[in-house]
Write a structure and sequence with these properties.
Number of domains of chain B: 3
Number of strands of chain A: 0
Largest interface: A-B, 31 and 48 residues
Distance between the termini of chain A: 36 Å
Structural class of chain B: alpha/beta
Strand order of the largest sheet of chain B: 2-3-4-1-5-6-8
Radius of gyration of chain A: 15 Å
Helix content of chain A: 55-70%
Oligomer: heterodimer
Number of strands of chain B: 11
Strand content of chain A: under 5%
Number of helices of chain A: 1
Largest sheet of chain A: none
Structural class of chain A: mainly alpha
Bound molecules: guanosine-5'-diphosphate
Number of helices of chain B: 31
């Protein structure tokens, strides 16, 4: 059971880091989103 | 089989284009961007009679086809490029009954392109009150097309409009103004070289280059360019454009004289009375100031209760999660990392919703335009334009849309300066940071019986943001070696009761994008931070327990305190502890400890992460302390002790210093990215980042050293 928890933890950690990495270095192209009105990946 | 036709909605800004678009399409809308440029593209579907479907394209608001901004050139492009898939079968030109004269300029231009065009006269609901009468039949005859009176607000005339659209094939396409009178000689030459071309279209294509370069106008244009037709000098073309406008207004004046009657005596002219007060040299500013004051007071007072509930709810949620899930590192991550981190965002929903509620109300009511007008000559002194007020005010939401909102500033220098200074305004991401620090270091007190000292502080911070923006604009205006050329079309819509639906949509939109946009990042950063804070290497981390116990051996200390000391020791020697320690020398003179150092670094991803980070870090520190699990972030931060000074970490001095740092620092990667896009070089964002960080550091340093 405790191993499962460690595995989940590792997945969460790797996922989070990869996601942040992608978000900062390969930001989404703005022309796909609803720009000018808020959600432009600005947060 | 259903057929589909292309309908383009075109009109001056503020004629109710958006409202009409919403009426026609309901929720069948899609918002995107034009390829390659950052102008918003709104499309929607509308069902007409007999299985006919209209694909409606809401083009950006424009005053004429003589473009001077990116938004406007999109309109021209769409209308000139017959091969584009967006080329309209019928253009619906929207005008506002109270601004018909100006609105008709655009209509005559479109009509002259020989595109079937329907004239919509919106805001018909105001006719009675303003004692306006209009001879529609005569107007249809003079303009050679269908004219439809609608009220987007009252949902009147929409069906008649749909009917007119579905009969688009019956619309006549003769021009209203003979464009060759602009310069008969030149036009006859043109028509000799291009016998089969429409003259007005050629004329537009030629003059486009004067106003605006590098846009794709389809094959006809390319042919014209390569043909080397003797083009007039820019100056001459400008003069001719001016002449075109005059010719059109002559036609319009003649027309309106025949069809439009305003009974001025019976008009209940609230507008001019209100304008006299709201635009007054003294009262105008005073009223604006009080409106702002009221807004901030409301943000503070009204949202206090929901915020407290949210704070408590997240604290309990953490506790329940920890108790009900099986013990283990993942459970701890959820209970101590993710939930408190998210709580730090959700708690600001009430305030952000209130802020946007007010912004939407001001915009909808027409007051915002008065503010633009009021501020124009002040702004000019600082190298900004009256139109910079809107970006600066939207900057209170987020710098990204604000930077994008500068696109309608015609003058490049004014626009660049606005872009560079907008990030100083207090964006919603700074709000959480301010709120929590104000709660910690500003005493609960009322001033002048009514105003809460905390609310006043918040307002001062907003004013400080504007002041920083304005002062740097002034400096930039002096040092930037760019020439300016600018004219300003002042838009003064009538006063209106805000439309509930429009306001609601804005508030929901903005709040949602704040929560969703920020939420994801917060979640990811909370996970990383929690792991960095919960794990470490080396003896000092692994043997934390024995080290601390040894330290206190023989002393009479409560178990609870020992546990806390162990947690603290662990945190200090965890991964994050090392990172924080590494930055500490740089932030110590500002009055911060290494924990705040970490929070500052992590907020470069997004400022609002600051609160989430602190919540995570402090939560980790209290992990072993069951009683404290239930405590709120605020109390935990308040209990924090400054390692250097001994007293509370958040003293008045360090709190103010931190607030100032956040007020001035450019801590948003996404803003830098958008500035790069809008200025087309890394030079400006780099300058912006460096300058703002230096200013922030020294402001914070100064404040702490003076106040401590
Ligand atoms: N009285 C009245 N006001 C309207 C009508 N349609 C729109 N408005 C108001 O006009 C303002 C501008 O509308 P909006 O749709 O944002 O215009 P846009 O800038 O052309 O997209 C808003 O305050 C609307 O509430 C109408 O039919 N009657």
């Amino acid at each position: 059971m405790i191993y499962l928890q460690y595995i989940l933890l590792a997945i969460a950690a790797v996922g989070a880091v990869l996601w942040l990495f992608r978000k900062s270095f390969f930001p989404k192209k703005y022309d796909s989103g609803n720009c000018g009105d808020g959600d432009c990946g600005c947060h | 089989m259903s057929r589909s036709i292309n309908v383009a909605l075109i009109g001056n800004p503020n004629t109710g284009k958006t409202s009409l678009f919403n009426r026609l399409t309901g929720l069948n809308q899609k918002v995107g961007n034009y390829p390659g440029i950052t102008v918003e593209k709104k499309e929607g579907l509308c069902k007409l009679d007999r299985g006919l479907k209209a694909h409606i394209l809401d083009l950006p608001g424009t005053y004429s086809l003589n473009t001077s901004s990116l938004d406007e050139s999109v309109v021209v492009e769409t209308l000139l490029n017959k091969n584009s898939k967006d080329f309209p079968d019928v253009a619906v030109v929207i005008s506002d009954i109270e601004n018909l004269k100006r609105n008709l300029l655009l209509f005559t231009q479109i009509k002259d392109l020989e595109i079937p065009a329907i004239l919509v006269i919106n805001m018909a609901d105001r006719m009675q009150r303003k004692a306006i009468t209009l001879d529609i039949e005569l107007m249809e005859k003079e303009l050679n097309t269908r004219v439809v009176l609608v009220s987007a607000r009252k949902n009147q005339g929409i069906n008649a409009l749909k009917e007119a659209i579905s009969q688009y094939k019956t619309l006549k396409t003769e021009p209203c103004v003979n464009s060759s009178v602009i310069d008969p000689e030149y036009f006859s030459r043109l028509s000799k070289v291009y016998p089969n071309q429409q003259l007005y279209k050629l004329w537009l294509v030629i003059t486009q280059d004067v106003n605006f370069g590098k846009v794709d106008r389809g094959r006809d244009y390319e042919k014209l360019k390569s043909s080397n037709f003797s083009v007039k000098s820019e100056e001459d073309l400008k003069k001719l454009q001016h002449k075109e406008t005059v010719v059109r207004y002559q036609f319009i004046n003649g027309l309106l004289k025949k069809v439009l009657h305003v009974d001025t005596v019976h008009a209940k002219d609230l507008r001019s009375k209100l304008d006299r007060i709201l635009l007054h040299k003294v009262w105008g500013y005073l009223i604006f100031f009080f409106v702002l004051l009221l807004i901030f007071q409301a943000i503070y007072d009204w949202s206090e209760y929901p915020m407290d509930w949210i704070d408590q709810a997240f604290a309990s949620l953490s506790q329940i999660t920890a108790e009900s899930l099986p013990d283990g590192p993942f459970t701890s991550l959820i209970a101590e990392g993710i939930i408190p981190g998210l709580g730090g965002i959700v708690i600001f929903i009430p305030q952000i919703a209130f802020l946007f509620l007010f912004i939407a109300l001001l915009e909808e009511s027409g007051y915002m335009s008065r503010v633009v007008f009021l501020m124009d000559h002040i702004m000019k002194k600082f190298g900004l334009s009256g139109k910079s007020v809107v970006p600066l005010i939207s900057g209170t939401a987020c710098a990204i849309p604000a930077v994008m909102a500068t696109r309608n500033i015609e003058d490049w220098k004014e626009r660049l300066i606005t872009i560079l200074v907008v990030p100083f305004t207090t964006c919603s991401a700074r709000l959480p940071v301010y709120l929590i620090i104000i709660a910690l270091v500003i005493p609960d007190q009322d001033i002048w019986w009514f105003f809460d000292l905390k609310a006043l502080t918040l307002m001062l911070l907003y004013l400080l943001g504007f002041a920083a923006a304005i002062v740097s604009a002034w400096v930039l205006n002096k040092i930037l070696p760019i020439k300016r050329k600018s004219f300003f079309v002042m838009e003064m819509p009538a006063y209106k009761l805000p439309m509930f639906k429009n306001v609601l949509i804005t508030v929901i939109e903005k709040t949602k994008s704040f929560v969703l946009g920020a939420g994801k990042i917060i979640m990811a950063i909370s996970i990383v931070l929690w792991i960095l804070a919960s794990y470490g290497v080396g003896d000092k981390f692994n043997n934390a327990e024995s080290i601390v116990k040894e330290q206190y051996a023989g002393q009479d200390v409560e178990d609870k305190i020992i546990e806390q000391k162990i947690a603290s020791h662990k945190l200090e020697h965890s991964f994050i502890g090392y990172i924080g320690k590494a930055i500490e020398p740089a932030v110590r003179p500002l009055g911060y400890d290494w924990k705040i150092g970490i929070a500052i670094v992590s907020s470069f991803a997004a400022r609002e992460v600051f609160v989430g980070t602190l919540a995570t870090i402090y939560s980790v520190e209290n992990i072993k302390d069951e009683d404290k699990m239930n405590e709120t972030i605020k109390n935990r931060m308040r209990a924090e002790v400054n390692p250097i000074l001994g007293g509370p970490l958040f003293t008045f001095a360090s709190g103010i210093s931190l607030i100032l740092f956040y007020a001035f620092a450019m801590q948003c990667m996404s803003t830098l990215a958008i500035v790069k896009r809008e200025t087309n070089s890394w030079k400006w964002p780099a300058i912006q980042f460096t300058a703002m960080t230096i200013i922030a550091y020294f402001a914070a340093l100064g404040a702490f050293q003076i106040l401590k």
